[in-house]
Amino acid sequence: MKTSTALAPLRRAAERIDRQTPAHRDRAVDGLRALALLAVPTGHWMLGGFTVDGQGGLHNASPLSAFGGLAPASWVLQMLGIFFLVGGYASALSFQRRRGSTGAWLKGRMVRLGRPVLGVTAVWALAAPVLYAAGVPEATLRTGATLVVQPLWFVGVYAVVTALTPYCVRAAHRFGGWAALPLIGSVAAVDFLRYGPYAEAVPSWLPVLNILPGWLFAYQLGVAWGGRRIGRRGAWLLLAGGGVLFTVLLAVFQYPASMVGVPGEVRTNSHPPSLLVLALAAAQSGAALLLRDRIAGLLARPALWAPVVAVNLCAMTILCWHQSAMLAAAVPASLAGGLAGLTTAPDSLGWIAARTAWLPVFAALLVGIARYARRFEGPPVAAGRAPAVRRAVAGLLAAGFAVFALGLA
After folding, report:
1. I need a labelling partner for 21 at 20 to 30 A (CA). Which of 53, 189, 318, 343 fits?
2. Which domain holds residue 51?
3. pTM exceeding the 0.85 threshold for the entire prediction
4. Which of 211, 214, 238 is closest to 225 using CA atoms?
5. Per-position b or e across 85-102, b if 16+ CB within 10 A of its CB
6. Domain annotation covers residue 3
């Protein structure tokens, strides 16, 4: 009885959110976006760890170095393909419904992407010297700067593919889902060159060519989905074809099993994306299309829909600040010595169990940070001299921190 009474305010809030949701809102797409968003911090929190040196400095480590059997977990947690899929879907619909020029539409999208990034980097630019003066080891600051900047590459790539939306819409209108085929062909060609018999003669910069087509692939599929150019037959083809290609690349061509980088490994699937990433994205996209109606049915329940709304409203905050939440726990712990699952080496099953227990702590810290960082996702303030000066100062701080962090890599 007491539990029911305590949950009553939450039920009322969920029902209010449900009533305020427009009837045309695609709940399945929002649900998929929320799932992909939550996979980012979960993956970084579970597949990343720390060690502490003799001076109390934090250094990055990964349980994948000791437990190669954890690689399949990265297949589930690597959901950027889903994120780009729903991003393309939403951008296609928004572009088609725009009220104004393409430039104005694109500017609005870039502002929504840029302000949270500017916020987190400017805050860290101010915090780093303060933390150093307070006695935080330089090694810890180096590790923290790397972790904060690390997820932000995604925003830059996403901005570029968003800018290509008009061209993606035209391609989807003409070729449907097949418009994504040249992109997967391009990645396959680069992979053949960098991993094939003439790999030693390939210039070191060649893999960079995979960045744009590698992430544009799922986005293009999403644009075609938004234009209703992919049906169930296409979805089954993506699911089956992606699954078969994924299996062949692992079993026959010996691609690394982990979807994220493993310290000490020469080959990586994620930076830049390999053909294995696209195979996984294809299979995930096919499954998403096939499960759309079931997901929408589940999210018709207010109790399930309300959390999805909350996550979508804080999308960029989650992306930009989840590493800061983990650091908020790890930095004080490193000053106190080793703490299981947090600052001890990720090389035992006990560490995995302990790190799992830390996840709610990281999530709570992220919620606390989001209460203040969420303002960076809000609409920009009115134009004027003072806001312009603040934006300029924030930009300089952010640029300085980015140069500092990238210089440490």
Report:
1. 318
2. 26-408
3. yes
4. 238
5. bbbbbbbbbebeeeeeee
6. no
